[in-house]
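Q: Structure tokens for this one, please.
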Amino acid sequence: MESPKNIRTYPPHAGRKLARAPFLPMSRQEMTQLGWDSCDVILVTGDAYIDHPSFGMALIGRLLEAQGFRVGIISQPDWQTAEPFRALGRPNLYFGITAGNMDSMVNRYTSDRKIRSEDAYTPKGDASRRPDRALLVYAQRAREAYPDANIVIGSIEASLRRIAHYDYWSDKVRRSVMPDSKADILLFGNAERALLALTHRLAAGEDISTIRDLRGTAFMAPRGWKPAPGWTEVDSTRVDKPGRVEPHPDPYEMKEKNDSSCATTPEGSAAPAAAPSSVVARPIRILSREERQAQLRETRETSVVRLPAYEAVKDDPVLYAHASRVFHLESNPGNARALVQAHGERDVWLNPPPLPLEMDEMDYVFDQPFARAPHPAYGRDRIPAWEMIRFSVNIMRGCFGGCTFCSITEHEGRIIQSRSERSILDEIGQIRDKTKGFTGTISDLGGPTANMYRLACKDKETEQSCRRLSCVYPSICSNLNTDHSKLIQLYRKARALPGVKKILVSSGLRYDLAVRSPEYVKELVTHHVGGLLKIAPEHSEDGPLSKMMKPGMGAYEEFRKLFERFSREAGKEQYLVPYFIAAHPGTTDEDMLNLALWLKKYNFRLDQVQTFLPTPMALATAMYHSRRNPLKPLAGASAESVETVRSGRNRRLHKAFLRYHDPKNWDLLREGLVKMGRGDLIGNSERHLVPRAGSEQERKLPPRKDGPNVQRIARDNGQVKPRPGGAIAAKAQPVRRRAR
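A: Here is the predicted structure, written as tokens:
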């Protein structure tokens, strides 16, 4: 894999060193105060502008500012006309357009397709300030405002919709956002590398239509276009018929280099005797692992995999699942090939994913001088996401868990990118010194998964060769470093800072990793739990867990015992808050009943619960749409059908099982239990799940002794709490960080 250009090494644009703006301008008046006659880049976002590294537009705006570019922001424009998109004039280089930190459809609608009552990223929580499919609407309006301006799109919405994708809200497969947005180029994933390279090249005079070599970008191309002579196309347009594919070397192979001792005939017998003296025997040279990898890398770098066309997958759910399977197998930046998918007479071309940032680059991105506050234009208006995130610090990005329902890995990738201790501790100091209302408590020191900080494959070559979708399923890979000592050290240094009274870890953690380090669990439980700790078994039954790629309940029980033991030793009364998903593909009515009985056994009474929400491009979404399992071959005897709950009534029943204690659900549960032949669970004793209709228990509803009445924040399949966003590709999340 090539060594990427370090993003810190770019010289400032045109030698320009800008005075840092207190806030990036949102009006002509602010531009005038800064002495600007125009903006080089105008960022359009569906979120309120909060100058804080947890918000994507602020993160990339400040990064571009550090490179000498004049950046303006158009926040939550009125999309009914093009006029608001002319507010800052025509950008010299491009409009950078994002729907915001969340997919706009996930932001606006629940898993029952009902409009949400609050938008966490909008002043006063106003749910009417962004349109459906905001990325498309904003891009089209920007094009209308300035037809000759360059349009660059990104964000979680762009990342998850960069190829043909199943759209739950319209219940159909939609085209890639590229042809519908009329954008010039799409940046996906954590796009700081592509963003800076693109911006500097445009500033140097290159035409955006010629910039086709940046990793982490997608664009429209003529049908059959190739970057250069010599490129080969791998046909993967038929189910499980991927064409000729060079086998990847086994990343776990430990044989000696050039070891020819295993040479045998096809039948496995010993090699034949030496040839007669009249025949000169030519020794067969067996390539070393490194040589085979080099050959494969050369082939891979000039290969493109052709996915089934949009016109094919939109009408064939199994072919859609095949496209999803191929797409996810080409997700490791160390070995991924380019992908191409026909849309009519043109192709959507996807370059390989972006290369992860090194630690010094992560520090550079996060160390910019953020105001750490909402733009003054909002006055004292409450912005819910800001209230949630203002005292928290993101320490890393990415997740190697590979949960099929979660959109983190599709966007941020599976390789963990961590900040240095110095950078993290400096940000805590910034919060202490600059953020109004700070009382000494850091509300979260975490990330997509709180305890993946600085965890990685033990061997770089193995990491670059690996094709596994998860490092921790079906079991934790033996090549994964699970040492939590660096995270323990960070916790200790953070809570020792002057003026800091408490450091909480509110991000969900991966408990199957945590139990590998009892010292970490003790440190966490003793010092960093605020009474409740969120973890996510997601289910109790093996069937749905296998479709989620989640561990069984054995790991949960092991963690629970450690948690309770260390809580007792610390003299603290603390509780675990388990998260569960209803109606996930592969879940039967019996599975949900068994989960309800498990919850009752352990006295869990969940308040808010989550019904599976099919987000674009997730593997679980492919299961939902196709009723097949793309984790396995989709044709032949090994193909696996997946039971899928789709009707509103059945989805409500599955959700009701999670809230078996709620009287509003008892009629539905009684009906469901009778149909399942489990009427024995209807009654008034402790062993019953719900009371009989009209019983005294139902009429009086006496309070019952129970565990903590814990609340569950809706998580929306990985798009949860606001965390630092990537370049134009702002991260998925609104109000609570994803629990593992």
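A few notes: The CA atoms of residues 34 and 522 lie 51 Å apart. The longest strand covers residues 575-582.
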